[in-house]
Structure formats: structure tokens, C-alpha cells
Amino acid sequence: METKANYVLIGAFTILVSLFLLGFGLWAAKYSSEKSWREYDVVFHEPVTGLTQGSSVQYNGIAIGTVENLQLAPNDPRAVVARLKLQASAPIKTDTRAKLSLTSVTGPPIIQLTGGDPRSPPLRETPGHDVPIILTQPSALQNIADTANRLCERLDTMLSDENVARVSRTLDHIETMTGSVSDRREDLGALIVNARKATEQLN
Q1: What is the pTM of this model?
Q2: Partner residues linked to 81 by β-bridges
Q3: DSSP summary character for residue 122
Q4: In this prediction, what percent of the chain has a pLDDT beyond 90?
Q5: SS3 of 186, please?
């Protein structure tokens, strides 16, 4: 009976030690991971079409992390919040800016980080947010979209019903004038001949 009790104690002790070692290993792995990576938020006030979870994040063209999550801003559905997982060694400063970019004409969009003066302080959390927020700047994609929208608005103004009616009237006037000139070709020919004769006589 006493031998069986010893076996039970040894087995329980072995299980407890194994669980402790497993928990310690998971904690150490998580601690190491947290030390190697840091999370940031980027709030875009433009469409992020094509950007997905796992999309690359680059700093001056060098990959330093990925997009962990995308969601609409809770207080403004027109904005999109992108949670980034970046290398802890990445020099994210207060003047670092994020924008959407393309790696190629047909490639998927990525988040490109630029700026970051060495003299600027590191970016820290702000009150009310659990992670630092990287400010954005308009991307080339947004500039192209804005330019296209302005061109469309100007075309709409130029092709308004009033302007179309004016162009039609102008074309009618030109056609009338052309018809009048065509009807008086003989008179114009005679006028040119008489002018030539008058010039010869003057010479």
C-alpha cells in the first residue's frame, strides 16, 4: 500500500514539473516574441482596396513587418484602422508617416513608412490608445483618384446642357456662314479678279 502511494506522489510530481516547464517555455517564447516585435496602428481616411491581413509593411523599401488586422474605425466608419506588427528595432519616430504604395503596376498594395528624423523622439502610446498611432499622408493612389474626380467634375461642367446648346448654336452659325459663302462663290471670284486688275492698273 505504501509503495503504491509513493508511485502516485512521484507521478503527480512529474506531471506538475512537466506542466511548469511547459508553461515557462510558452511564457519565455511569448516574452521573446513581444521583445522582438511591437504593434502600431495606422488610421487611413481613404479606401484600402487590396490591402489584406499579412500585407507587407516596408520602411524606405525594406520589409520590417506585416499587417496584423484591418477594421473600420469604431467612431468613424469612413476610416480604416490597420494594426501593424513591426520589428522592435524599426526606428519609428514621431515624424514617421505611413501611406499606401504599390510594389509594381500589377502588384498588391503595401504600407510604406517614410520619414523619421534621427533627432526625433520615438513614437509612444497616446492617452486612450493601447498602441502608438502612426500618422498618414496621401498616397499616390489617392492623388490619382482625386485628380480623376476633379477631371470628371470639370467634364461634367463643360458638357452641361447649357454649354452643349451653345456649341450646337455655334455649329449652326458656322454651317450657315459656310452655305452663304458657297452660294456667292461666283461673286467672290469676280471680286478677286477685279481686285487683281485694279492692282495691275495701279502698278
Answers
A1: 0.55
A2: 43, 71
A3: B
A4: 25
A5: helix
